[in-house]
Specification:
Elements: H1 2-30, E1 48-52, E2 69-74, H2 78-82, E3 95-98, E4 104-107, E5 111-114, H3 120-131, E6 143-147, E7 151-156, E8 162-165, H4 173-179, E9 192-196, E10 203-207, E11 227-230, H5 234-268
Parallel strand pairs: 7-11
Antiparallel strand pairs: 1-10, 2-3, 2-6, 4-5, 7-8, 9-10, 9-11
Helix pairs in contact: 1-5
Length: about 270
């Protein structure tokens, strides 16, 4: 009788393992974010791979938008732009302005200037031309503009999730991940996602952090409102699922052993 029961036990255990295996895909789907319309072939991510190109062109420079907060200064003489007296000690401080909903910035002396739709360099050149004309008539001003509220959202398997300000014109994915505390041991380093552009049809970029060639790609330089998502790796997801399954496996084994014991005792009394 014992030999007849063992195959039954093996069949039940095999069925249980099969259920766990086939449910792993569903578990991974439920515990990862930002699924693309097409299924990613991980082998295609050699260094940087664009999965979805999106409806917006890939812009390498920040475009000034409404509600941007910017600093503007003339590196030759900040006081002339700020409207302060030349005798005041303010030479290293930049003035902060918000781009209003009417697309303009209210600047001292020259009034409102429309900067929306321009890159930083284009806006600097526009202000340079304005400041060279009356009433200021500056000679070869050096205008510096910095967008201070440009940000990137970082989610997933990093040391610290959150919103991070882009404090300079070109910030790479490597620098951002460093600020976020680096990748965790649970991270999938071959498929780090950058999501950018129109939220209705975003561009989705996968970066293989194991390949040093990614350092040469312009795609890893971040833009305002980019989302960086680091997925958990398959091993971590599988281990997490197994840990959640163990209590059910223990209960199943206990019930099975109890049933076999009752059956054995009942047969021994015959």
């Amino acid at each position: 009788m014992k030999n007849n029961k063992l195959p039954i036990v093996a069949q039940f255990l095999g069925l249980f393992v099969a259920l766990v295996f086939f449910s792993s895909c569903s578990y991974r789907s439920k515990n990862t974010l930002f699924h693309t319309r097409e299924k990613l072939n991980v082998d295609s991510v050699k260094d940087v791979y664009v999965m979805q190109r999106g409806s917006d062109p890939d812009q390498k420079a920040h475009i000034i938008s409404r509600n941007d907060i910017i600093t503007i200064r003339n590196l030759q003489n900040p006081n002339l732009i700020s409207g302060l007296s030349s005798g005041m000690e303010f030479a290293t401080t930049a003035m902060v302005y918000r781009v209003d909903v009417d697309s303009t910035v209210a600047l001292p002396v020259i009034g409102r200037v429309n900067l929306v739709g321009l890159t930083i360099i284009q806006a600097e050149n526009k202000l340079k031309e304005i400041y060279q004309k009356p009433p200021l008539m500056l000679r070869d001003p050096i205008i510096n503009i910095l967008v201070t509220n440009a940000k990137v959202t970082v989610l997933g398997e990093v040391g610290r999730q959150g919103n991070f300000l882009l404090t300079k014109e070109r910030t790479s994915l490597i620098e951002l991940l460093g600020d976020a505390g680096g990748l965790t041991p649970r991270s999938n380093k071959k498929t780090v996602q950058i999501i950018r552009g129109n939220p209705k049809d975003p561009q989705v970029i996968y970066v293989n952090m194991r390949n040093i060639d990614v350092l040469a790609s312009d795609k890893i330089y971040l833009q305002n409102n980019d989302i960086v998502y680091v997925q958990p790796n398959r091993f971590s997801l599988g281990l997490e699922q197994l840990q959640q399954t163990l209590p059910f496996l223990s209960a199943f084994t206990l019930l099975l052993n109890t049933g076999l014991l009752i059956d054995r005792l009942s047969n021994s009394n015959r």
